[in-house]
Structures are given as C-alpha cells and as structure tokens.
Backbone:
C-alpha cells in the first residue's frame, strides 16, 4: 500500500495504466515517469550520462512493458501479418524476430515494431508508441481473412549491456544466454511463463524478457536485481544518448505517419518484388520510382554540450532559409560531440554539407555526417 501511495504523485488517474514493474522501479530509484502507449514508463533514474555509462560498461534493467504486444492468430494470421508490413516475412522461422515497418495505404509509417513468430498461426508485434491494435482491427474488418487480434497479458523488460549475458545466465540458466541475435525462446521460470529474446533498444548486447503473467512483475524484477546487482546490473531507463549514437529512430520524434520508409533510409525494409500483397504496396512502388524530397540524416552540431535533449523540432538553415528540422539531439559523452538526427531537404542531405541549427534563437554551425554515429555495423549487439 505504501508504494501505491508513493506512485500517486505521478498518477494521472485510471486512464493511464501502471506496469507490473512500476512499484519496483520506484523502489529502485525511479524519479520520474512519462506516458507511452497509454502507460507509465520510468524515464529518470538520476544522471542520464551515468545511466548511459552503466549501459555501455555493465548492464541496466529497464521497464519497457509499454511495448505492448498486438497478437495476430487464426488460420490467416501469416497472410494478415504480411498484409500489415512492407517487409517480406515469408521466410521468418518460428522463434525468430524481425524489425518491420507497418505502413498505410499512402506509404506512411504506422509503427516500427519487432515482430515475433510464435507459431505458423500466431504472431506478436511488439509496438512503439501508436495505437496499432485499432488500425489492425480496422484492416481485418474488410480483409476477408480469418484472424483474431488481441492484446495479451505480456509485459517486457529489457536487460541490456555487455554484462547482460552473464546476468541472464545467472537468472535463468544456460539456454536463454545462448540465443542468437534476433531469436527467442519460451522459458518456464518457476511456473511463470516467459519469452526471452535476443533483442533490445540499445544497440548493445542485450535481451528482452517478456513476462506472460503480470501478477508476477514485482517478483521478476526483484529476482533479476538480486542475481544481477552483484554482477554489475543497475536499474535504469532506455538511453537517448545510446539510441541516437546508434541511429535508432523514435516514433513521433524521428518518424511519424507523414513519413515513408525511403525518407528514413529504411528502404531495406521494403520488398516491392514479393508476390504477397500488402497495404502500402502501390504507394511505396510509386514513391520508390519518384524519389523523395527529404531525407533523415545525422548531423554534428558545434558549440557547448547540449543539456538534455531537444523538446521541440529545431529549424535547420541554409543561408538563412529553413531546409529541415532536428528531430532528436543529445550530447554524447563518449564521442564528446553534440549529435542529432535531422530531416533535411534532399538537396542538402549529402555527407559533408555545412548547415546551421537554430536552437532557442541561438544559431550553431553543423555538418551532415553518416549514421549511425557509433558502431555502424552493430557489432556490439550482434556479438556471439
């Protein structure tokens, strides 16, 4: 009861859901929460730079139960999952994950989830911050396909960082720690059903632990911290520093429904030549042929280190005229640089182009650079 009263200082009422880990996160030092997918997510465990160093040097445990699962089941589940996505899913194996884009009839991005194939007739989409379940149910109404769409009782945690494998092994034994990149397995933890995947939103070695019984959330968090803390585990939150270093995009910041995959440099996730139909096939075929007028790029920004991240879209200028916007910006203590993602007019998106950023009426020089800013081959996340 005491922790319920403590959490009340963050509460907006019953319209925003707590996670199974909210009280545990509060006990372990969470100082602030925000709202994502209509749920509370811990966003503040103190110094964000220290959280970053904890992640890249040791390991952090993050409550990401806001990554809700949209479950597709039924005889036509595979065909419907493909209909939602522009990436070819036909060769996906049971036990495999894939990063996919869900795109609408105009080619706009609805969401960029991780898809998990649990069976030939059962798929999960582990979603970013948008109401995918409503869109999927709307598609199903007129699809003529035999599918059921639901949100199961599933709440993921992220265990990320170079020590995550050792901690996972201590928590659950050898088998989960031997998972290959973008693979998952079912695991019984003392009668509590889990799915453990070799995925995560950090570009570091890491895992996601999908709890399939929300009533065990507090116990699972405490178990992981009990075995993990002596091995270097820290409670934490997803790191904006690390994800921008890695060029990982955040829905509503770096991409919205107004953007298509080609603007974002994600054309590799579009398979126009596959025989299967999907919602955006005609639109993306047309966009691919026409080309795009803007592109997401990396920029390094001169001047003093940024304090925190940007809370609005800073204008990007060329000779005093706006040619784009900064979507996500941060100071990287590892790179000792201000780094940012920006949507820029294609004519000014070449590597090496000199531009300016208007930051709170303070103009700073910047230069277009390749993304990701660090570990471009994702060797850390994919290490064996």
Residues:
């Amino acid at each position: 009861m005491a922790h319920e009263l403590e959490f009340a200082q963050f509460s907006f009422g019953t319209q925003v859901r707590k996670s199974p880990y909210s009280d545990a996160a509060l006990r372990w030092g969470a100082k602030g929460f925000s709202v994502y997918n209509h749920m509370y997510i811990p966003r503040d465990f103190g110094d964000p730079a220290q959280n970053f160093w904890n992640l890249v040097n040791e390991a952090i445990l993050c409550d990401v139960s806001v990554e809700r699962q949209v479950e597709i089941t039924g005889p036509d589940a595979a065909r419907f999952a493909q209909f939602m996505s522009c990436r070819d899913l036909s060769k996906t194996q049971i036990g495999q994950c894939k990063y996919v884009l869900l795109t609408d009839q105009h080619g706009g991005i609805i969401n960029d989830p991780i898809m998990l194939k649990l069976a030939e007739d059962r798929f999960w989409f582990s979603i970013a911050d948008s109401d995918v379940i409503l869109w999927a149910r709307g598609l199903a109404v007129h699809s003529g396909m035999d599918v059921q769409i639901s949100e199961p009782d599933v709440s993921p945690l992220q265990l990320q960082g170079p020590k995550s494998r050792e901690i996972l092994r201590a928590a659950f034994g050898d088998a989960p720690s031997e998972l290959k990149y973008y693979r998952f397995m079912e695991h019984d933890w003392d009668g509590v059903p889990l799915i453990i995947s070799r995925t995560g939103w950090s570009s570091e070695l890491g895992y996601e632990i999908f709890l399939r019984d929300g009533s065990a959330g507090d116990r699972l968090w405490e178990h992981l911290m009990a075995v993990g803390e002596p091995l270097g585990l820290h409670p934490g939150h997803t790191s904006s520093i690390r994800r921008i270093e890695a060029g990982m995009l955040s829905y509503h910041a770096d991409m919205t429904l107004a953007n298509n995959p080609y603007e974002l440099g994600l054309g590799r996730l579009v398979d126009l030549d596959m025989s299967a139909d999907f919602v955006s096939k005609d639109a993306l075929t047309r966009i691919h042929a026409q080309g795009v007028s803007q592109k997401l790029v990396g920029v390094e920004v001169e001047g003093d280190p940024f304090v925190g991240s940007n809370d609005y879209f800073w204008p990007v200028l060329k000779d005093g005229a706006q040619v784009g916007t900064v979507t996500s910006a941060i100071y990287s203590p590892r790179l000792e640089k201000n780094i940012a993602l920006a949507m820029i007019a294609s004519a000014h998106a070449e590597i090496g182009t000199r531009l300016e950023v208007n930051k709170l009426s303070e103009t700073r020089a910047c230069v277009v650079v390749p993304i990701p800013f660090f570990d471009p081959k994702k060797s850390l996340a994919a290490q064996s």
The chain has a mean pLDDT of 96.
